[in-house]
């Protein structure tokens, strides 16, 4: 049984662990070891994450007390993070989180969502009706990444 609830301060370490595992185990299909290390350092900076999360709204998916995934978005509808723990992949976790974010944003009058999707997240967002507005190359920790600016259905 999967439940969705707002992020709480005590979830910080679990969220960062889900992010790190997800990048290294799921996104490793599409990115080089150098890219993975730059994107998700194996010794993450929790204070940097605390600051990152303070500017966005975050929802978490939880199953029997285990954090299965999370989504973070700005009040104007930009999805900053959407990550599922590898052990929960392809079981609808991201879909549940996405639908909850859509509902939350709709209640504030935001109908169209945007994101900057990784190669690994592109099929998920396409399955939700998003289309690519721009293919981008961005730099993180001195390493370049391909990603896609995408806009969702309105
Ligand atoms: C992208 C991600 C969040 C999807 O999470 P998930 O919980 O596995 O997704 P869901 O189970 O809700 O998938 C819903 C649908 O999206 C599509 N989809 C998801 N992952 C896919 C993949 N790897 N390849 C093709 N289609 C995919 C499918 O249509 C899927 O439906 P189906 O399983 O019935 O075929 C997850 O793969 C992830 O964390 N990836 C690595 C990190 C990352 O790149 N995050 C995004 C940063 S922008």
List keywords for this structure.
154 residues, alpha+beta, Aminopeptidase, 7-stranded mixed sheet, 5 helices, 7 strands, 33% helix, globular, binds coenzyme A
Give the SSE map:
Elements (H helix, E strand, L loop, with lengths): L1 E5 L5 H14 L7 H7 L6 H9 L2 E7 L2 E8 L4 E7 L8 H15 L6 E4 L4 H6 L3 E10 L2 E9 L3
Parallel strand pairs: 4-5
Antiparallel strand pairs: 1-2, 2-3, 3-4, 5-7, 6-7
The protein binds coenzyme A.
Coenzyme A binds next to helix 1, strand 4, helix 4 and helix 5.
Folded structure, characterized:
With 154 residues, the protein is of the alpha+beta class. The chain has one domain (2-111): Aminopeptidase (3-Layer(aba) Sandwich). 33% of the residues lie in helices and 32% in strands. It has a 7-stranded mixed beta sheet with strand order 1-2-3-4-5-7-6, with helices on both faces. A hairpin with a 4-residue loop joins strand 3 and strand 4 (78-84). The radius of gyration is 15 Å and the shape is globular. The termini are far apart. The mean pLDDT is 96. Bound molecules: coenzyme A. The site of coenzyme A has 22 residues, from helix 1, strand 4, helix 4 and helix 5.
